[in-house]
Design brief:
two-stranded antiparallel sheet, 6 helices, eight-stranded mixed sheet
């Protein structure tokens, strides 16, 4: 190919394609939302949450172990590496063995023992912190392509700090007093505050201070065979 001074190489010549402006609305791209399906809304539409970001991303789930394990299993299915920081390894062992299929896609670590994971865009990481009501400040932190999901069974003195710093919160059934506190922190409307104490098992309010979406997590046959039916209490 010939060269033009100051303009680089001439590229291959192709016929230009043009679309009238009034036809643009008919165009679509076969690309789905980036993330995992966390459940369906009231109309049965899938609700997708993206956990992998080029910037640090923290998620707090005030809810049950069952939902956290479903999220871990589904994210592992997308090719993400899952590091579980927990003081109760026995409740994760079956999941780790079933999800691995000979690969270490979900790994268990004692509290405070999660090593550097080396996340990249092609090998993202989710760290699940299952450290009880008062998860200690550890060396594990969110970073580009490494998100952190902190599981809190109920509200505790550290919960307000974690919720305020989270990019996303998942709230399952809580007491009316807890709902009031969460409503103030997350700036929820009154109807959502009232609903939080009546949510059924498997229902989660995924929210930020600007957006809210309820999702009913319905397990696949494989998930229910491994984890049982949805439950709020462990």
């Amino acid at each position: 190919m010939a060269s033009r001074h100051g303009q680089g190489l001439l590229g291959p010549r192709r016929t230009e394609h043009a679309v009238p402006a009034d036809h643009l609305a008919a165009l679509s791209l076969p690309i789905g939302d980036d993330g995992v399906v966390v459940g369906n809304d009231a109309e049965g539409r899938p609700q997708v949450v993206g956990f992998h970001h080029p910037t640090p991303y923290d998620v707090v789930l005030v809810g049950g172990l069952w939902t956290a394990q479903v999220m871990a299993l589904r994210l592992a299915g997308t090719g993400a590496r899952i590091a579980v920081e927990t003081g109760r390894a026995h409740v994760w062992t079956n999941l780790v063995q079933a999800a691995g299929a000979g690969q270490e896609c979900i790994t268990l670590y004692d509290v405070g023992r999660v090593p550097p994971m080396g996340p990249t865009v092609s090998s993202p990481v989710l760290v699940v912190r299952d450290c009880g009501m008062r998860p200690p400040r550890g060396r594990v932190a969110s970073m580009p392509w490494q998100s952190v999901l902190t599981l809190l069974p109920y509200l505790s003195p550290v919960a307000p700090r974690l919720l305020r710093g989270a990019g996303l919160a998942g709230i399952q059934r809580v007491s009316p007093d807890e709902a009031q506190q969460i409503g103030r922190i997350m700036q929820l409307p009154r109807q959502d505050v009232d609903a939080l104490s009546t949510l059924g098992d498997g229902v989660t309010l995924w929210c930020t201070r600007r957006e809210r979406s309820y999702a009913l997590t319905q397990p696949t046959d494989a998930e229910s065979g491994l984890l049982g039916t949805a439950r709020r209490l462990d």
